Each structure stands twice: as structure tokens, then as C-alpha cells.
């Protein structure tokens, strides 16, 4: 049975923020930081943490919007999305990536965590995870449909860890030509895998009213589980 608790993290420039921690049945394992969608650390993100913990990982989901609105949780509705995008537009990427590094260090220092943690993220979090892998040194990176990934490819040249990127071919939030650019960028990089699914945006989020392709979600999860088993084994 997994166990969960709230962690308090100290930012490098001062201030404290929370993180939702889930430990696997075994009580210990490799660490994985999970970066939220734009809706905050909500029921969906906590479910993602439970699923990763079910694979044997110690999982930490930090509150990435704490500098704007601590504890923000928004529903995946049209109204919630409008509000969430407002927070995302005000997100400071310099301090935000620093908070991701703080989360990796905090998770790695816990007694339950074995070895150097990796990072994963969905939507907004998919871009954060990708950029954190480019600017830092997580053990692995898993990025789900980060619409900012195509704009971060120059920085992505510095990624050295095993990296898995998921996209939905029907994603309306991706910039035109963005997925093709990522695929071309990854073609000669042995540490990067890019997987496309016949789905739209947020296809992993079963709480989203737009969720319509459970087979794509299941297929992506199987790929992710296999990737982690290879590159961050429990």
C-alpha cells in the first residue's frame, strides 16, 4: 500500500513551498519528481503520483505556482483553463526551473529515495521537465505533450539523460510544425525517444472532459513504464 504526506521545501532564493510525496509499497525506491499541469497539484496529479509509486518510485509533486498562488487547484474545465493559463503566463521560468532543481535535490535527500532522481511532467509540466533536463542533471526525463518543447530545442541540445517525449498528433496546443521539429531534432540523439499517439492534448488526464482515447493513454503509460524500467530501474 502506498503512503503519502506533504513535504515542505525551501527555495534557493528564500520562501517555502509544499510538495505532495507518495512512497511505494516497499517504502523506498528511485525518486521521480512529477511536475503538474497548469491546473496545479490536483486530483489528477496526485493520481499520476500514485501510478508512478505503483511502479516502485518515490514520487514528489511540487507546487510550481506557489509564488503566484500557493496550493492552487483548478478543475480541467474551460473556465479553469482560462484561469490556469493566466497563471502559466505569469510563471517566471528562471525561478521556476530553480524550484524544479530544489525539488530534485529535496527528493534525493530523503531517506526513502535511492539514488539520483528523475523528472517527469504533463502539459505545462512536460515543458518544465524538458527544460530542467536541459539545464540540470536529472537521472531521466519524461515529457508528456509539452507545448513549449519545440521552442526549447536549442536548450535541449544540452540534455544528456535518457529522455522520453510523448505527443498527441491531434494536439491543438502545439505550435504549427512543432512536433515535426522535435522529431527531426531527436532523430540523431540516441538518448531521446519521441513517441506520437493518435490523440489530442492531455490524453493521459482521465479527469478532463476532453478525455476520449483511453487506449492512447494506456499505450503511452506502457511506453513510460518500460522506459523507466530500463533507465531508472526499481
Overall radius of gyration: 16 Å
User: Termini, distance in Å?
Assistant: 16 Å
Category by helix and strand content: alpha/beta
**How confident is the prediction overall: mean pLDDT?**
97
Order of helices and strands: EEEHEHHEHEHEHEH
Oligomer status = single chain
Helical element count? Answer: 7
The spatial strand order of the largest sheet comes to: 1-2-4-3-5-6-7-8
- What's the total count of β strands? 8
Low-confidence stretches: none
Strand count, sense and barrel status of the largest sheet are: 8 strands, mixed
The helix fraction, in percent, is: 25-40%
**CA-based shape:** globular
Content of β-strand: 15-25%
Keywords:
8-stranded mixed beta sheet; globular; single chain; alpha/beta; 234 residues; 7 helices
Report on the architecture of this protein.
The protein has 234 residues and is α/β, with parallel strands linked by helices. The protein has helices at residues 43-54, 78-90, 93-109, 124-135, 153-156, 178-186, 214-231; strands at 3-10, 16-23, 31-35, 58-62, 118-122, 141-144, 163-168, 192-197. It has an eight-stranded mixed sheet with strand order 1-2-4-3-5-6-7-8, with helices on both faces. Helix 6 links the parallel strand 7 and strand 8 (192-197). The model has no long low-confidence stretch (mean pLDDT 97).
